[in-house]
Amino acid sequence: MTERDAVPCGPFEIEPFDLGRELCAGSSGDEVVRRSERWLVGVLGEAEVELGAADREIAGLLAADGWSVAQVVGGWVRRAGRRPAGVVRELVAPGVTRVG
Fold first, then answer.
1. pTM for the model
2. Which of 2, 8, 65, 71 could form an SS bridge with 19, CB 3.0 to 4.6 Å?
3. Predicted confidence band of residue 90 (pLDDT cuts 50, 70, 90)
4. What residues contact 83, with CB distance under 8 A and at least 6 apart?
């Protein structure tokens, strides 16, 4: 089980603190922000999201906004990656998706 697996991915009804508990163990301040950024980039990587330099910079800004922000955004990515078995989505036009 990775550190990312130990952090619930929601949906969230209240602000989550799980990631904060994981990241703060033995660290504080800037190191917690760096860990939060690595966690979020790791979630994106597991979802096979290709990241450019600006993407990584924005992930860092989100992480610096607080671990609950990173956890919620990471949760969105993880939940979006879950596809029901047998469901295929096809983009047929801008903003139009066919589900079959």
1. 0.74
2. 71
3. confident
4. 89
Segment 11-62, tens digit of pLDDT: 999 999 999 888 888 888 889 899 999 999 999 999 999 999 999 999 999 9
Q: Among all chains, which residue has been given the structure tokens 């163990």? A: 25
Q: Write out the DSSP string of 10-72.
A: ---SS---HHHHHHHTT--THHHHHHHHHHHHHHHHHTT----HHHHHHHHHHHHT-HHHHHH
CB environment 44-77: b (16+ within 10 A), e (fewer)? beeeeeeeeeeeeeebbebbbebbbbbbbbbbee
Q: Both tokens of residue 100? A: 């079959």
Mark residue 53 as left, alpha or beta (left: phi above 0; alpha: psi -120 to 50; beta: remaining): alpha
Task: Give me 7's structure tokens.
Answer: 């952090």
